[in-house]
Design goal:
By secondary structure, the chain is α+β, with helices and mostly antiparallel strands. Helices cover about 20% and strands about 35% of the residues. It has helices at about 15-30, 65-75, 135-140, 155-160, 160-165, 290-300, 345-355, and strands at about 5-10, 30-35, 40-45, 55, 80-85, 90-100, 105-110, 175-180, 190-195, 210-215, 220-225, 235-245, 250-255, 260-265, 265-280, 300-310, 320-325, 330-335. The strands form 3 sheets. An 8-stranded antiparallel β-sheet has the order 2-8-3-4-1-5-6-7, covered by helices on one side.
């Protein structure tokens, strides 16, 4: 798996001032500054060693976020803002903006099937903002195995060290800002519900897809639990488990690693947890029907897995989706015979309906 990151950098020595502008931006999105608990977004700011830049990081940043915020910060600070994003080491873009000087520069390195290139590179326009433009121009036209290699000489281009752009140790940044979403009083806590799932008998070596959506407020943290008597003796193995992410114009598969765990009362389970997983808030039903359906698809949690093993145990597979902020009341469970009195009743009705269709 390649490298992913999105961050931006302000050419200024006023880190606290930049912090105020970031607070203002997030408040405009309906979020509030909070203490370091129950947060939806954490923003880390770091002053470079030479003091020329303030770098801004967040695990929550997507490339759309930095493209939205960079012009606002540039206008408020009257400074250069450099937005940088890398997608799976295949594609890198840089966008340098200075609203006061009416500058908007763009550079593409590589190409990716995950995101569409938004603009063409305008390499020659970078000349006034680059310390060693000849070097920059030559390297901007090279092909790289890993797109982020282009940034190894970023200190030569911007006086901004490579280590600052790809910073992984954000725990040691200069300071942090924590934000939580403002929720309406009548919005309940995160609660997941099944919105798409199989109703036909599960078969060995055939993929299963289950989709859930949140009908409560946004939160962070998700767990997925497989349960059933097939786990203890490996009668069924759950393989190729992944989250299927709808990106709008393409689908992305994110593998998840299930851990076999023994619980005191429930017995053996397969378990996966991600405490930083963002669960979007409920999609408003006031949206137009097509928009509502599309948004529900994009913001759903879709699990794909392949069970392999004893066919007679397949009906015993249960999958539970758990929002960590509301683990008991917010969870939902799928099993193929749900809605029936028993497995026997399910098979009887399924076979009756199946024979009618033939």
């Amino acid at each position: 798996m390649g490298t992913y990151f999105s961050n931006f950098h302000i050419r200024t020595k006023e880190a606290k001032y930049i912090g105020k502008e970031i607070i203002g931006y997030y408040e405009s999105l309906g979020m509030k500054l909070v203490d370091a608990k129950d947060v939806n977004a954490t923003i880390s700011l770091n002053i470079t060693a030479n003091g020329d830049w303030v770098s801004v990081y967040s695990d929550d940043f997507e490339y759309e976020d930095i493209l939205n915020i960079a012009p606002i910060i540039s206008e408020k600070s009257s400074s250069d803002v450099l937005a940088v994003s890398c997608v799976d080491s295949d594609y890198l873009f840089l966008n340098l903006i200075n609203k006061q000087e009416l500058i908007d520069l763009w550079l593409n390195i590589g190409r990716s099937s995950e995101v569409k290139i938004k603009r063409r590179s305008n390499i020659n326009s970078w000349k006034t903002k680059i310390n060693n433009f000849d070097l920059f121009k030559v390297n901007a036209k090279k092909e790289y195995i890993f797109a982020e290699e282009f940034l190894e000489l970023s200190n030569e281009y911007f006086n901004l060290p490579y280590e600052e752009i790809i910073l992984n140790d954000i725990d040691n940044c200069s300071f942090k800002l924590y934000f939580a979403a403002l929720e309406e009083d009548n919005t309940p806590p995160s609660k997941l519900e099944l919105t798409s799932y199989p109703v036909s008998p599960t078969k060995s070596n055939e993929p299963v897809l289950c989709r859930v959506n949140n009908i409560g407020r946004a939160s962070k943290g998700l767990a997925i639990v497989f349960s059933g008597d097939y786990i203890e003796n490996d009668d069924i193995l759950i393989e190729e488990a992944s989250l299927v992410v709808d990106k709008g114009d393409h689908v992305k598969y994110i593998p998840i690693k299930l851990q076999k765990t023994r619980l005191e009362k429930e017995g053996y389970i397969y378990y996966w947890k991600n405490e930083s997983y963002k669960i979007p808030k409920v999609v408003s039903k006031d949206l137009p029907a097509k928009v509502y359906d599309r948004k529900r698809s994009i913001e759903s949690i879709c699990l794909r897995f392949i069970p392999k093993g004893k066919e007679e145990k397949m009906l015993n597979i249960k999958v539970t989706f758990i929002p960590l902020t509301n683990p008991i009341k917010g969870q939902c469970t799928w099993y193929v015979w749900m809605g029936h009195n028993s497995k026997k009743d399910y098979i009887k009705k399924y076979m009756t309906n199946h024979n009618k269709e033939r």
